[in-house]
Structure formats: C-alpha cells, structure tokens
C-alpha cells in the first residue's frame, strides 16, 4: 500500500510526548512490512540541524488561507529507518521556540498554523510519487484533512488516530473562514460542534476509519466519563473505531544497548541495573543505599495523576525512607510543588524540570518502580518502557495501562506490575504498599522484573493491525 502519514510530531525531529514516538516507529514498521510510507510534518525550528540530509525541493504549494494566498516550500529528507520525509516550510507559522505554545498558553494563531498545514498535506498528496491511497492522520492538528478531501472529492482514504481525546483543536466560529470550506460544512454533520470549529470532531465524522491507541481506551471514550463530550459522536461512529496498542521501539529502548545508561543489562543478566540506580541517584545528588527508588517521567498535568501523587507521596514513600525522582515539565503549580518537595527532602527527592531524553532512559533503568497513576491514559509509553527495563510500573487500571500491565498476584507470583482500580489516593497507596512488600523479597522481585522484561510489545504486531484498518478503509 502507498501511505502518507501526516502529524505534528515525529521523534527525534519534533516531540512533546508519545505521539512523536509513534511517528518514529509505526511508519518504519509498515515500511519493513513492504509498504511505501512517507511522513509529512511542519518544518519547525531546529529540524534542519537534526536532519542533515534534509534538502529544499523545487515544489512550492500555493494555498488559500481565508483571503490570503500563501505559498509553502516543501523540504525532503530520509529518516534513519529509511522513511521518506516531507516538511512544510512557512516560517511565520513554524519557526518558533515551541510546537504548540509557551508556558503562558497555546499560540493564539494555532487554528491558522494547523489549518494551513492540513491544506498543505492534501495538496502534497496529489504531487508525490507513488500517489498515496491512504492518508494516516494523527490528532486534531491534522483533523481538517478528511473534510478537505471530501469537499474536493479526492480519491484518498483517510484514517484518523486519536492519541488523546482531551486535546480537540476547538476554536471560535470565526476561524471557520480559515478553512475555505463550503459554508454548509459549518454544521453538526460537518466541522461545527456546539457553535465552535472542532477539528477533532470533524475528523471523527468525516474520516473513513478511526483508530485509537489501545482497545480499552476505544471503549472508554464512548462513555461520558472519558469521552470529553465527544462520546456521543464516537458511539455513533463505533462501527469504524478500532483500538490498537502502541509498541515499543526496541532499538531505541533496549537496556542491553542503550548509550544513555551507565551499564547494560538484560532479563537474564540483571546485574547492571544496580549500577544504573547508583548513577541515577548520583545524577540527582542523592545518597546511594538500599532504600527503594520510585521514578516518574511525565508531562506535569493532572491527567498523569499528580493529584494522587501529591496526596500519597509523603506518607507512603518519604516517611518510610523511600526515594523519589521526577523528570517533567508542564503545569507551573506542579513544577513549584515538586521543586519545593525536593528542597524539603534533599536526601530523598530529586526533581528535574525540563525535557531530557537521556535522563528519561536512566530513570527507566535506574528506578526500582515506575509511577504512572494517570486519571486516563490513551496508551502510555512510559509503562511499556519501564516493563522492558525491569522497573515494574504502578498504574491506574485505565486505557493502555489496563491493556499492557498485568496485576501482580502474590499467591502465584505472576504479573508484571501493580494496578489500582478506583482513582483515589487510597488505591495508589495500597498499590505502593504491595510494591514495597515485593521489594523486601528479592526473589519475588527478580521474578516480577523478569516477567515484565520478557513481554513483547512489538510494533510489527501493531503494524499488522493497522493494515487491516487500511484495508477496511480502501473497501469503504
Ligand atoms: P504522553 O504522550 O501523554 O505525554 P506517553 O507515556 O505516551 O505520554 O509518552 C511520553 C513520551 O515522552 C515518552 O517517550 C517519555 O519518555 C517522553 N517524555 C515525557 N516527558 C519527558 C521529559 N520531561 N523528558 C524526556 N522525555 C519525556
């Protein structure tokens, strides 16, 4: 099949979260299965430095944005895994310090920035060879593409993947003019949702197939509790909705060959893990010792369960001498809270506010347990990495966390991590206590680690599931 991916992130060129990791891995996995795959992204600041083979092409796309005629130069390159890449250059939109906004909020012109990108994607698909038959779109930043394709009656099939339903690209009605779609599209069967332009909703209705990143999340988002007000739209369209769990990029996340680690290790030879714990504690200027170490790498938002962490960390972890390290950035409230916590417990708590790829790997390797008590979690990648790195995750039983972690059973010694069902401090507290109990039994801990490390979350298996969705789209 000929497939063009369009997205706003792809690691290592542009990444704020799991979306970037998926774009780095899934196109490559499909290519390895014999498909012709390319990816198109905005040409953000810094991409040129990260991709030395990137070259300007002779292709300029001339696009209408409301009443303006704007052109965009297309740049071309090839990823390390051999996937053909296109970047859309329009510096006034993409040459900025961040992808979506700064600490003070989203960029005010995000509607224009991404509607422009969507128009460029559709035009590009008409010029490249071989001509794509499938457009695989990701999250609201590409949500207008199905509407454009339908309005122009192009013979392209659109697949839309929801990575996080909470971010919808909802803009005031006046931004509809930026779409240049016929007026009837601003209606309930089109791109309008309660009087606003909603790019996520537009994609759910007008794409040929919808996927999301775990089977449990596919069910959850059809309920009012998780549907972010789009549950009705999803229920109406459940016949074209599939949940496919993300995989792990086993080249990037391999404790035996990870240049960010202090020592390599494997499921059969765990010795190096202790050295990574030492290096991790050292990097946070924390004393080494035998006390259990809990790690987190995360965007600092309430979605990731930081309210529960805040309610439990002192009584469940710090008061019993355990240690905690955190890498993340986001909500200034949580940034300040954890920075102060590190000051209060200088020998037990290490906090780094920021984005640091290498430290993320070291936390996965050097921690004893990984905390991920998300309120909701479409898939989650960090728990998959922690399983692979022998660091049992402690998770809320939701979405992709429910689908990827098997609860530890102390009678049989089976399972890969610790789950709690009700989203409340008591649930997390109990899960932490169960983890601490296993920590005190080295043999049980070794078995638990081994079970996690030998799980398979291959992208090849996910790619095979996506092929079925593409086939269904081609038949529709
Ligand atoms: P989400 O996409 O909701 O943020 P995921 O668990 O799916 O959560 O993916 C997060 C990805 O981003 C992982 O690869 C994780 O290691 C990475 N990540 C998150 N925060 C940071 C950070 N501060 N520094 C480095 N990597 C980070």
Fill in the keyword field for this structure.
Rossmann fold; globular; binds adenosine-5'-diphosphate; 21% strand; alpha/beta; 9-stranded mixed β-sheet; single chain; 36% helix; 2 domains; 6-stranded parallel β-sheet; 476 residues
General description of the model:
A nine-stranded mixed β-sheet has the order 3-4-5-2-1-8-9-13-14, sandwiched between helices. A six-stranded parallel β-sheet has the order 17-16-15-18-19-20, with helices on both faces. Helices cover 36% and strands 21% of the residues. The model has no long low-confidence stretch (mean pLDDT 97). The radius of gyration is 23 Å and the shape is globular. Helix 10 crosses helix 15 (425-439). It is α/β, with parallel strands linked by helices and 476 residues long. The longest helix is centred in the first third of the chain and has 18 residues, at 110-127. Strand 18, helix 13 and strand 19 (393-396) form a beta-alpha-beta unit. It folds into two domains: 2-247 and 459-475, 3-Layer(aba) Sandwich (Rossmann fold), CATH 3.40.50.2000; 271-453, Glycogen Phosphorylase B (Rossmann fold). It has 17 helices and 20 strands. Bound molecules: adenosine-5'-diphosphate. Residues 17-18, 21, 297-299, 327-329, 355-357, 360, 379-382 line the site of adenosine-5'-diphosphate. Residues 17-18, 21, 297-299, 327-329, 355-357, 360, 379-382 line the site of adenosine-5'-diphosphate (ADP).
């Amino acid at each position: 099949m000929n497939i063009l991916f369009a997205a706003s992130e792809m690691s290592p060129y542009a990444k704020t979260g799991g979306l970037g990791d998926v774009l780095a891995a899934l196109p490559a996995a499909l290519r390895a299965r014999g498909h012709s795959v390319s990816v198109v992204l905005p040409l953000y600041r810094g991409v040129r430095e990260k991709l030395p083979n990137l070259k300007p092409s002779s292709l300029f796309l001339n696009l209408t944005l409301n009443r303006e005629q704007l052109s965009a130069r297309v740049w071309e390159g090839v990823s390390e895994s051999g996937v053909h890449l296109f970047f859309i250059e329009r510096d006034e939109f993409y040459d900025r310090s961040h992808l979506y906004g700064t600490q003070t909020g989203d960029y005010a012109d995000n509607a224009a920035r991404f509607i422009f990108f969507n128009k460029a994607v559709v035009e590009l698909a008409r010029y490249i060879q071989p001509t794509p038959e499938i457009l695989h779109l990701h999250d609201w930043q590409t949500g207008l593409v199905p509407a454009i394709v339908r309005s122009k009656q192009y013979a392209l099939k659109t697949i839309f993947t929801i990575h996080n339903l909470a971010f919808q690209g909802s803009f005031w009605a006046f931004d509809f003019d930026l779409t240049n779609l016929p007026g009837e599209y601003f209606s309930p069967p089109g791109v309008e949702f309660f009087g606003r332009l909603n790019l996520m909703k537009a994609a759910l209705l007008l794409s040929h197939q919808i996927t999301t990143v775990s089977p449990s999340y596919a069910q959850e988002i059809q309920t009012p509790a998780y549907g972010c007000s789009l549950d009705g739209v999803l229920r109406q369209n459940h016949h074209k909705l599939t949940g496919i769990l993300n995989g792990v990029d086993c080249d990037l996340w391999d404790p035996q060959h990870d240049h960010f680690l202090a020592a390599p290790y494997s499921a059969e030879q765990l010795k190096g893990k202790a050295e990574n714990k030492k290096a991790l504690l050292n990097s946070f200027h924390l004393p080494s010792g035998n006390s259990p170490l809990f790690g987190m790498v995360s965007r600092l938002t309430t979605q990731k369960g930081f309210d529960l962490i805040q309610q439990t960390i002192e009584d469940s972890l710090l008061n019993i001498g355990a240690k905690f390290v955190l890498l993340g950035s986001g909500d200034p409230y949580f940034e300040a809270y954890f920075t102060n916590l590190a000051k209060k417990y200088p020998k037990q708590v290490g906090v780094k506010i920021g984005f640091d790829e290498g430290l993320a790997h070291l936390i996965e390797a050097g921690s004893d347990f990984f905390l991920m008590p998300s309120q909701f979690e479409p898939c989650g990648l960090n728990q998959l990495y922690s399983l692979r790195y022998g660091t049992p995750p402690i998770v809320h039983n939701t979405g992709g966390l429910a689908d990827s972690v098997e609860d530890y059973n102390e009678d049989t010694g089976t399972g890969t991590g610790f789950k709690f069902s009700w989203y409340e401090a008591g649930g997390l507290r109990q899960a932490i206590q169960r983890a601490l109990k296993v920590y005190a039994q080295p043999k049980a801990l070794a078995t638990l680690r081994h079970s996690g490390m030998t799980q398979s979350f291959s992208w090849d298996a996910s790619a095979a599931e996506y092929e079925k969705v593409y086939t269904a789209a081609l038949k529709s």
